[in-house]
Predict the structure.
Amino acid sequence: MDVASTVFMFLASILVLFMTPGLAFFYGGLVSRKNVVNTMLSVFFITGIAILLWILVGYSLSFEGDYYGIIGNLHHVFMNGINLNALTTYKIPTSIYSIFEMFFAIISPALFVGAVVGRIKFKFLAFFIILWSLFIYYPMVHMVWSSNGFLAKLGTLDFAGGTVIHINAGITAFVLSAFLGRRIKRNSTVKHHYNLPWILLGTTILWIGWYGFNAGSAFGLNNVAMQATITTTVSAAASMVAWMILDIIFVKKPQLIGACTGTLCGLVGITPAAGYVTVFGAFVIGICATCLSYLFVNYLKAKIGIDDALDAFGCHGVSGILGSIMTGLFATKDVNASIANNGLFYGGGIKLLGIQLFATLITILFVAILTSIIILFLKMFMPMRVDHKSEVLGLDRTEHGEDADYTVEISDNLDERKRDMYIHSDEFKGQFAQLNSHSHLK
């Protein structure tokens, strides 16, 4: 055992797990007050499901055996027969390698939850995540990260999850949004985010956790891990600043949500390339990721008509696609000697770029088709979308019987004010009476 690398992987695994509650705070801060509990629970409950699925069949389907370069086998249910003390080629125990990959299996489906918050039934989402993990995520892991996978054999570069995680989750978000349909429109054009400080908190946790995500994908304490750390940092910073500049130009104001969104776009964009590109390559990828995602979120999304509530596709899908393709431009053996071909800008010709384009296209088609099949199958047995009344009242109360807080918000919307006053009338009779007595002052 390489003790230093094993300790490093242990810490990286914890950081990846830390990303899931970070994402819950990020998404929970973005949604309206009536869907905070549903959103945060929809992200966090995946932790339990994903861990049990991974131990049951996930590891075996991802990394053991091979069928046609697409999927592994079921010979190691509950990891039976796996020597957890055996060392990988990186001289770390199989146990910590499996745990690291397990935590990837948690955060990946949590990403697309942001597209469907406020209108999908919790039961449908739970069953969808199970089938998605079995028929989409584990095959993607096998195809790209297993030595037997057909995309891996082609020479596809995906350092930490551009295809496996971000394009995968982004396309899933897009398809789910298309099947669900648009949200019920509010009268107000103002966006009511529950908690802006939560958005910043969630972004910060995600950024910190991303070092486990990217640097940990070097599977050891080595120069590639150090390179992944600095490229991750530079891409996130470049992307954040680029989004703020775009907001200043087009919105006329720098905005907190924009800075946070830009940061995540940079982190997503650099993920497939983190251990393969130079600092300059990371800088360019970060800026390009923000520009393309900004264009989609603010202009193309409305024209397409897909209601991706929290821009899971706009951020993860768009930036992930760009990062995967740009790896074929900026990857260089000077950073990582293990790669077979340099990128286009480093004298490698178009071979690697062609491979990256092919892998990206295959991922998009595979995920879109399988996601559609899973949705159609589940809709035969259960409804996908909540009813109109539940969507208006919010899923916190109708799906879970809980509220994020129990204060009464005096809203500018008359119907909401009446509803809150009715619900809390016994507790606040005095205050309401005082309010009514001075209503003529309005």
User: Anything to note?
Assistant: The mean pLDDT is 91. Residues 351-379 form the longest helix (29 residues). The CA atoms of residues 33 and 405 lie 9 Å apart.
